Amino acid sequence: MNAKSLLLVFMLGVGTAGCASDDNLAAKEANDPLEPMNRFFFDFNQRLDRHAALPAATFYANTVPRGIRGNIHNVLTNLGGPVNVANDILQAEFEFAGIAGARFLVNSTVGVAGIFDVATDWGLPERGRDFGETLGVYGVGQGPYLVLPFRGPTSVRDFAGGYVDGYFSPLRLLHYSGSNYVGLVKSSLGSVDNRSANIVTYRDIERASVDYYATMRAYYRQRRERQVEDKAVQTAELPDF
Asked: What are the tens digits of pLDDT across the range 110-122?
């Protein structure tokens, strides 16, 4: 979803936000002025998940051997190396930037394009950072909460951060024919990989929630706050959005 699409979604949300009650303190406290629109897209994404994403993720988890799934996850993680380096530098975390750069170099070469996570065995642990977190480190708040179709929960800050991160992706820096298809394959694999890793987590959260939308909103906010503070995030507590 590009900037023009976000603007259109935002304008639609402003139109529907008037339907929300001024007494909705939970939405105000969560900085969720577009809650009616967000709930609409949340329900849309839930239906899409039940009929497409979850079955695909379940099939993937049950049929693809764990080792191959691990290799695919390693490749996807490795592609984020330059993004980590750039954001560590922007956050003046130069030691971590060096580690991230070394990880990307080692796994891209010795690890055969990132298929094998050699760097971790060599004492170079993975530490993901993104521009939304960088803005948070600079003191920029998350801003209004958003739920985007086909994407899920985010915020104005994190959506903008993801757009900037895209410019540091190796797939964008390289010029080759069919780049759009490669990007689509990467996005699809990333979605399946993430969803398959969180099948139990999302199920348990939904079963325990009185208001699943509000619970996921709170969890997203908490997870991003911990990531900005560079605190450990336990997947069992907060899902990996």
From this structure: 999 999 999 999 9
